[in-house]
Design goal:
Layout (H helix, E strand, L loop, with lengths): L1 E5 L6 H9 L4 E5 L9 H21 L3 E6 L11 H12 L5 E6 L5 H17 L2 E5 L5 H15 L5 E3 L16 E5 L7 H11 L4 E4 L11 H11 L4 H16 L2
């Protein structure tokens, strides 16, 4: 199984051990700092920590760890150029498999500018992107994200994450890959399963988004096991358990 969106820097080694024992073979850890960032040096140090320290902690538990880095919309800084240049380096050196997580939160001009620039980097380098959608005002923000992405890059490069049943109709007809985040304050297992029942499993990824917020490091295995208990077709289960992620991220 692959958990396609975690925040390893915010979790304990014990969580990673539980994930491995429960069947998580691979996880993708993303950039996000849960506190106001004062300058680009602080953010760069955070990204470097994820890449060079936290990824090793996950690997020690037996999980193959992949890394996505970028400027999260709640981590907006005044001088992001240093981060943009570092993203080019990460991509060139194959240190990351995606730019992420990026996106929009409050629809500020600064957020939109930084989001667009990261999409342009992704388009130029043909790099995948993991795109955050917020808890509040999700539909309106998603509409803006959709518009910007479709104007900037091939939608086949993009995962739109944290999508739920209330907003999925906005993007289901596009060529996006869609992330379902099974997390106590975002989506219950039952909601994820209802979405998969209605729309099929072809374009979906599962993730726990474990972070400093209330999270369940075992939500992906629990969802997959529930699908098996409900007698979903094994080939369909495999798509959301790992095959879609392998194909999308080319891992």
């Amino acid at each position: 199984m692959i958990d396609t969106h975690i925040h390893a820097d915010a979790r304990s080694s014990e969580d990673f051990e539980k994930m491995f024992i429960s069947g998580i073979d691979t996880a993708i850890t993303c950039g996000y700092y849960p506190y106001k960032i004062s300058n680009e040096t602080v953010l760069l140090n955070h990204l470097e920590r994820i890449l060079n320290f936290d990824s090793k902690r996950v690997a020690k538990a037996g999980i193959e760890i992949k890394v996505a880095l970028g400027i999260h919309p709640t981590n907006i800084i005044k001088s992001p150029e240093v981060i943009f240049e570092r993203l080019y380096n990460y991509i060139e050196n194959k240190s990351i498999i995606a730019i992420g997580e990026i996106g929009l939160e409050n629809l500020t001009k600064e957020e939109i500018s930084i989001f667009k620039k990261q999409l342009e980097i992704a388009d130029e380098t043909k790099t995948k992107v993991i795109i955050h959608t917020p808890r509040k005002n999700k539909l309106n923000v998603l509409k803006e994200i959709k518009s910007i992405v479709l104007e900037t890059i091939d939608p086949k490069l993009a995962v739109i994450d944290h999508v739920n049943s209330k907003v999925i109709g906005e993007i289901i007809e596009e060529d996006f890959t869609i992330g379902l985040t099974v997390q106590p304050e975002k989506m219950e297992i039952s909601e994820a399963i209802n979405i998969l029942k209605e729309h099929g499993c072809n374009n979906f990824l599962l993730n726990s988004d474990i972070s400093c917020m209330p999270s369940d490091p075992l939500s992906v295995p629990k969802t997959v096991r529930t699908l098996k208990n409900l007698e979903f077709d094994t080939k369909e289960i495999d798509k959301v358990a790992f095959k879609n992620a392998l194909s999308f991220f080319n891992i």
